């Protein structure tokens, strides 16, 4: 160790003083050696610094150890200090003194890193070092490096405050010796910590292993036994150490180890052995391995035996073999592939899938899987294999055609990546299943689900999907989309005069002729009945669209021969264009549909474009209102109001009629007479009816809990009435709300109920048998016959308000009296609608009508208002 510009006092001292200095420092060195020999701790290091401070008389001694901070910079970090009281208080507030960056103080650290002692007065320091020490009023700094394997790992700092200090050579030599002792102590401490960590790691590893580990010497005496696994079926007591193997171990175990030891000594390599033990009435199987290691105290070699219970593994292997035998019985083929798609192995079903003899299967090993796949499907399969091999996919299901004799078969393959012990992808595994029958059936089902059964054209679902895609593309590319509704003129006349079979022939022929006019990118769909829809994507050329429209009309006009009769056809077409006429798929369909009706209204057998209609203001508003109604029903914002039916004898409410109400954001409250037909035209009347029914049952449930039994009536549309599962759906809904069918009155208008008496009566009888109360609404407007009423299973007649409004005339009174008498004759309850005056009430009571509905009692109101009406129903007459 060298000194850097050492500040020392080399003036010879008197012999007595020099002896006293040696004695004092040697005594300090002796105490320091004693401290460091006991234990290297923060307390012992602080004691060393205290002895240095007391012996040298400096104000502060500090120990710094090298560290690397979070910015990968070398620093010297203050480990411990010993100072006078004043110095302690000052240093405790000096943050910069706790971590010293090498690069900030080059004069100090350059000297220390080459093993030199740094000793300087304050005026001799560089600005950086001077600023560091000046804040603590340090006048002289003596820094001695701690060298470990010739590398500076820290330093001791002795700092003189207030006055400069000169150091004698003897003092510096002793302090250097102290620094070396500290360096050795720290090195020893690091070694002890490393040994302790390694020992702990060894104990942890041995304790966590499933093996029993036995170390024994050449005399077969046990030196150590490790096993912390309580599930291991063999236990050895602590006193097994020092005993011979044949005494401490079970006989079969000892003999297996001794036999393997003999082979190990003669062949000088690792040796394995097996043995079986009967434990708890069960045979357990063990596998062991012997290996020699150097002995700690002699030149001899000891032996370590690692013993593992492999009973479970053997059971698993037996199960695996049984599983393989089972897999060979299955029709599914199990295959193993390399990461580049080569066949490595396969089960017996592989040959069955390919229809090849078993003696030829071996030739498939090493060939690409794609070799056995139809050419059209190879690229897709190869892409999946590549993605699995590089880890982009963990598993994937893919369908392809596998070569099978003359005709390929459809295969569903479930492929997944197989990982090695280092989590790298080592190969692929797959299960191949013949799905030819189900695949063809799925295609047939898909065809049926998305295509019209008669014409094989796309149906509504597929058309709407194509339309959404076309509009999405047009939005991205600023293209246009044309949509045309096509209606066959006077088709009902063909059906009625020539029969449904002839009508089907007409529809099929027409669909073929219209399809022949279109491009491959166009879509022709059968919308329903005699209506078709044509979709023209990428329709940027208006003249081209109009040309296609005329060609469609001309194609339909060609005559059709039906059973020897030449029949002429005409069609009416209405076209709308996105985005010129509409900003969404739904609006575009509404506009095109409306335009088609306009074409029929101006004479049929013509093509109309929405942009050509002169007065489009009303038409556009009607279309937009239809769109808003569709949204209102879809978002379930249609409201339900209730109008009470009152028994004039008890002056109590006996039932409520549920009435749909729609508040349009643009036009306010829309009359039901306007939006109900609109919902029927849009084909969403059933959704509207279901919402009204659900809301009514929910409210009726509350009224039953608060006011006892009361009925509610709901209007049923024709579309709802003839839904196949209509009756069962109603029963399920009623049960869901804890109600009975008798709590619900189903109102069917007279015109609907008598449209097809034989069919309607059957459905009405189902509802009546289920327990629902049936009412004919708007009675008297459908011109029904008494015989028809007699044949219908109805309970209530509701006289239309048009008759009530004429009760101030003699003829009006006679008509109502006749209806009342007929209802009495048929034992039907009578409800009169549209009652608005006390005079009307009194007259109806006089002719025996007791159930009355109208504004005289209450207009249709929200459910909350009806709740109040139930609480004070007597006030309805006051």
TrEMBL record:
Protein name, entry field: EAL domain-containing protein
Record CDD domains: EAL, GGDEF, PAS
Pfam families assigned to the protein according to its UniProt record, in alphabetical order: EAL, GAF, GGDEF
Annotated NCBIfam families: GGDEF
Domain of life: Bacteria
Domain named GGDEF: residues: 479-612
Domain (EAL): residue spans on this chain: 622-874
Species this protein is from: Sulfuriferula nivalis
GO molecular function: catalytic activity
